[in-house]
Design brief:
single chain; 134 residues; alpha+beta; Peroxisomal Thiolase, Chain A, domain 1; three-stranded mixed beta sheet; 4 helices
């Protein structure tokens, strides 16, 4: 994964090997994160995966054995906004938020230059006063 600064903005380069490398390392990262919190993949109620592209989402889904609709928020954000770099995972979290109940576990996954992988466990919060989403 590379970034080039041009007169027209940033240009991202993504090696075709990224999904393969992701598939190799993702299961250990996610299973370790969840195990430290007494959870398994099946306990997660929301997946906020940075949508680097359709192949990335497909790789995450296949590698973790997720249901076909598990990455719907990521796919919707990708279709509506494209890959907006780091901020994209925040758009996915915002789209996912209304579907999470108080305390529901959600995993956010993002990657960065040099193909670093970041994973965090989040929990759904209480509803906002007035009945809106949290």
């Amino acid at each position: 994964m590379t970034w080039e600064v041009t007169d027209l903005g940033f240009r991202m380069g993504l090696s075709p090997r990224v999904p393969e490398v992701l598939a190799e390392h993702l299961p250990l990262v996610v299973k370790d994160l969840l195990a430290r919190n007494g959870l398994g993949v099946g306990d997660v109620r929301g997946w906020a995966v940075h949508p680097g592209g359709p192949r990335i989402l497909h790789t995450v889904e296949d590698t973790l054995g997720l249901a076909p609709d598990a990455l719907a928020a990521s796919r919707t954000v990708l279709a509506e906004h494209g890959n907006c770099s780091s901020a994209t995972v925040l758009l996915v979290l915002d789209a996912l938020r209304p579907a999470l109940g108080p305390g529901d576990p959600a995993v956010a996954l993002a990657s960065g230059p040099g193909l670093t992988l970041y994973a965090t466990l989040l929990r759904g919060g209480p509803a906002r006063p007035g009945g809106g989403p949290d």
